[in-house]
């Protein structure tokens, strides 16, 4: 758009009373002798990939983005807030589990928007509309009046301060405000060069994971254990799908009663002892690596978790017999 405004459309734009653009929305003021159809044709012919549409004033009223413009009798424009027909007046309810600071900032932002956009004649009317909307959303009158009169002012910082971020659990408006005030006073008194940025967080009331849990054998990146009917325990780690690892420990031919070469400690134990261990109930996951970590870090956590579990439980099936050779003495 900038290249078109400085190129083929420059002469047309210069002939207009006013031309303003925000991203792809333009606001044009022209005299009554200017043909809007011809103006639209010129703009659409400036580039083959662009197609402009027009919206003209109706009943001396027009809106551009969130600004509503009404023509006065003397020809000047009266500014107010424009709201779409789908606007319901719903904001964050005062009784919702949200920190009080966010509810306070909601009023500040709404009032700041009114004071920046509206003409002096429409400010009081728009503020009354906001009061009505906030009352319908459960906001107390005293809370509204106390915050609606405050105009946000930017603090002029002469000496840059170091931002200190702190996250705390949200336990309600009263407790959160008390903690915020006390911490701010303590930090200001003991560390004046710090700018405390306190953030209150809350757990999701509806968990993000609304899907059904995956079957146990579909788990990956985990530490698992096997418990035989005799009490013998095996602990291992698995990066792949656990179903494949269980099939290696407990092959199909073992369930059929066949005898072949064992390739794992669990299979070797079941062959030698003849014990029966249900495949589904004997295996269980004792640790899962967090999915929001990198693959290398998750594997490192698995190695550490496996070593700690083996050190604590000392499972007898984790001894690798194939690496142990019987002691043979020359005189025996």
UniProtKB/TrEMBL annotation:
Pfam families attached to this UniProt entry: HTH_animal
Q: Could you tell me the keywords of this UniProt record?
A: Membrane, Transmembrane, Transmembrane helix
- Annotated ranges, domain Helix-turn-helix: 90-149
Membrane-spanning parts: 214-235
What PANTHER family does the record point to?
REVERSE TRANSCRIPTASE (PTHR21301), REVERSE TRANSCRIPTASE DOMAIN-CONTAINING PROTEIN (PTHR21301:SF10)
State the protein's name. Answer: Helix-turn-helix domain-containing protein
Native organism taxonomy: Eukaryota, Metazoa, Spiralia, Lophotrochozoa, Platyhelminthes
């Amino acid at each position: 758009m900038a290249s078109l405004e400085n190129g083929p459309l420059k002469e047309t734009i210069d002939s207009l009373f006013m031309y303003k653009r925000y991203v792809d929305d333009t606001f044009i003021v022209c005299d009554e002798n200017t043909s809007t159809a011809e103006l639209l044709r010129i703009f659409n012919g400036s580039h083959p990939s662009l197609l402009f549409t027009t919206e003209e004033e109706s009943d001396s009223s027009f809106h551009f983005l969130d600004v509503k413009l009404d023509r006065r009798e003397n020809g000047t424009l009266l500014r107010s807030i424009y709201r779409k027909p789908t606007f319901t007046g719903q904001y964050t309810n005062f009784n919702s589990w949200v920190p009080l600071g966010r509810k306070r900032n909601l009023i500040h932002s709404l009032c700041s928007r009114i004071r920046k956009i509206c003409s002096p004649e429409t400010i009081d009317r728009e503020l009354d509309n906001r009061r009505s909307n906030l009352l319908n959303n459960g906001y107390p009158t005293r809370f509204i009046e106390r915050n609606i009169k405050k105009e946000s002012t930017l603090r002029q910082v002469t000496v840059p301060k170091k931002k200190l971020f702190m996250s705390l659990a949200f336990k309600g408006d009263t407790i959160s405000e008390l903690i915020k005030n006390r911490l701010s006073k303590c930090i200001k008194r003991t560390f004046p060069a710090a700018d405390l940025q306190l953030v209150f967080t809350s757990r999701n009331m509806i968990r993000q994971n609304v899907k059904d849990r995956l079957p146990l054998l579909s788990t990956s990146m985990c530490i698992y254990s096997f418990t035989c009917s005799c009490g013998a325990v095996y602990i291992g780690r698995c990066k792949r799908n656990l179903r494949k690892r269980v099939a290696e420990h407990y092959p199909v031919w073992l369930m059929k009663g066949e005898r072949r070469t064992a390739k794992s400690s669990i299979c070797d134990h079941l062959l030698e002892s003849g014990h029966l261990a249900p495949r589904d109930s004997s295996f269980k996951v004792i640790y899962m690596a967090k999915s929001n970590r990198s693959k290398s870090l998750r594997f490192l956590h698995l190695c550490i978790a496996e070593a700690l579990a083996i050190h604590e439980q000392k499972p007898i099936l984790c001894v690798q017999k194939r690496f142990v050779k019987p002691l043979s003495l020359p005189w025996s």
